[in-house]
Design a protein that fits this description.
Order of helices and strands of chain B: HHHHHHHHHHHHH
Distance between the termini of chain B: 16 Å
Shape of chain A: globular
Number of helices of chain B: 13
Largest interface: A-B, 61 and 51 residues
Oligomer: heterodimer
Helix content of chain B: over 70%
Shape of chain B: globular
Mean pLDDT of chain A: 92
Mean pLDDT of chain B: 90
Number of helices of chain A: 16
Low-confidence stretches of chain B: 1-5
Strand content of chain B: under 5%
Structural class of chain B: mainly alpha
Largest sheet of chain B: none
Structural class of chain A: alpha+beta
Chain lengths: ~550, ~325
Amino acid sequence: MQATPQRTPLRRIGAAALLTAALALVGCAGGSAAPPAEDVELVDTGAEIEEVTVAFPGSLANLYIGQESGILNYNLAATVQEGLVAQDAEGKVVPALAESWETPDETTYVFALREDAAFQNGDPVTPQDVVFSLERAADAEASPGISYYLANLASAEVTGEHEVTVTSTTPDATFLTSLSNTGALVVTQQAFWEEHDGAVGTSSSLLMGTGPYRVTEFQPDSHVTLERVDTWWGELPPAKSIRVNFIPDASTRLAAAQKGDVDIAFNVPINQAEDWGAIAGMRVESMNDLSYVGLLFDQRVPPFDDVDVRTAIAQSIDRAAIAEKLLRGYGEAATAIMTPESLAAAYDGDEARRVLAEEVPQHDFDLESARALLAGTEAEGLSTEITYPNTGPQIGIAAQAIAENLNEIGMDVSVREVPIEEWLATIGDGEHGIGFMWYFSTTGDPAEVSSYLVGPDNPNGFESEEAAALITEANALSDPAERAAKLLELERLNAEQVVNAPIWWGKSVTAFSNTVGVHDYSPFTFTGAWGAQLFAAEAE
Amino acid sequence: MSPRTRRPERGGRTARTVILRIAGVLVILLLISFLTFTLLYLAPGDLVKNLLGNRPSSPDAIAAIRAQYRLDDPFLVRYGDWLLSALRGDFGVSIRLQQPVTEVIGARLPLTVLLIALAFLFAVVTAVPLGIWSAARNGSAIDRAVSAASLFGLSAPSFALAILAISVFSILIPVFPAYGAGDGGLDTLWHVLLPALVLALGIGAILMRMTRAAVLRELESDAITFARARGIPERRVRGIALRAALIPIVTSAGLILTFIIGGTIIVETVFALPGIGQLLEEAVLFKDLPVVQAITLLVAAAIAGITILVDLSYLALDPRVRARERAA
């Protein structure tokens, strides 16, 4: 399930400054690749940690992922609330509140809840609580941000003392993942929800969950405090408390780290990665974050209904240069919408990259061909605007480079930074023919992003029964390899029609103090019970 | 002053003036509420998109959310609903935070008031004496130094000043905390000092220049020349000039207090302070109408209150105004 990039306050970067940066970087003959993380050997000391201080690049307004569903909301809730299932470091579905499950037929899931499952207030988790949470999550008013992902939910019933039976309307390979905290289900207590009249996740109600940490304090624009509990079914975590500070300004965040006030910093801006890495006693780690950046074309806006125009634009994107030079290696040139990591169940990383590059038609960078294609179309000489969200300065740098190329092939494209809320409103609004799509996949399911961008209700105004059928067929397949093959067909359709032009798969840069280590660090770490993965470390 | 035969009711006219002014303020607040409502309605962005995020959504879900927040009602009906509730003292629930607006603002107001009060205090106690001093030594090296300092304060953008202040006073010379509001009490005061100083620098510079100009004007006035000609000691002459200059100084201080409110948005963001400024910025971007309306009205009422107080201060400062009051 997706999560919007986090809203953070305006970082005013003049277009001129961006362009200069872009040109300077393009001009660097060598280009600077992502510096390899300093080789720090960490040893788990086994000690307890009093408090881990985490810096978030923006504030959360509400802690319930149904109410506010940014990636940071998912990250925070992941160590507080659980779904029936969870995902391990490879993205495989593993038990969470349910210790096991059976699928008597392809639309029925029978979950056996852990008998010792308890909420953070000590009350046992009842099957009724699970059903109640699921119904709230599927309700558009109670959970606007996540209800779509339970559109396929047919029923949820208590079928035993520790048993819940959930059914989907059609066979659906993504259904199980949607019942995890990375999807749409975070189990809360019915009594707690009703006591607060559904207004959960606020500074006065906080959250009730079953994870290893409970929220003890929340002040929007300031901080969230988490304390470990002994009610979780897993092992008692070493860190007694976690304090998440919201520091919207990037310079202030860096200053706080330089003062030694930060143990973990999420989403370090890539242009600051070197500064963070230079702080004594800190290390910077980049990790594929299952995010996708690409261009989307609104086919309801001429001339973007012309496939030649879309193809020409796709051929004007120098993906390799953007990934290596502009993103300094903190991103990988995308050959498709779905990430190689999302195909882990079917292929290992290198194999997935090879398959995507070979099976999906590529629009290689070729300005000559692009110019020839664009000649004589309505787009020749067209003046248009492309906006990007202020929370993604790296997108702005890429936008300048792309606009530059489009100007060379005969289009006049201006780039404008807007607040993320304004950018959201431009997606598929029927006015902006060309725009950026920036999407953080939380489940890592291969269909998550492509079904949104090519399937029914897509923001591209692309209507295709073939695409809808492919998604339905793919989701009805349980064998990962067969499913991947179907989804590759969907990617082929996307590439042939140039519905979307993939640009890069993102990496998140996280800074850690060398006093804190993380077990099994992977793209899925921070969408799992990450508080319990932290340990007291010493650098060797 | 000779005793008068017909003493009017003391302050009767003043009371009437104040009541009229308050009535005027209420009309202005009504207009501002309508204007804010309209501007937010027209601003780019879409509340439904903000709630749904960047994700697929079914038409049913969109319809449910539109119905929940009554987005399909006509514009004037929505404004009327808001107004009727507000008149009853119900400012609604923040859409973004899902909490009553009064609760949200109440939780943040103390910090912003502290920040503004401290900044104002710093600005007044430094800028007014400096301005007077600089006017008294017009053209000297001191005057030029003070003017140069105020030019820096005027022209440096506050976000740059804030970042500079953090680099110098919390990293290079680790005296102050870099960010946040601390844990209440003295700790919070300690955390707010640096942001308040940054905020004070810009407004202090304006206040300094206005003070200097006002004192210079008075020192060069005919009344002062005449007083000197009569042989009144220079110290008393200065006293007379200062007293006359107080009126423009107080007026500009009142105006400046209203300027501060814009500066708080930037300072609160850079220093990660959970105050009204950050709240307003986020609410505007999110189109969280109940919050925007409540903060706008609060700020407008505060500005109106300050203006009335400044006007009343003329009574204390200017004998001519007092005389007019009595002569009514």
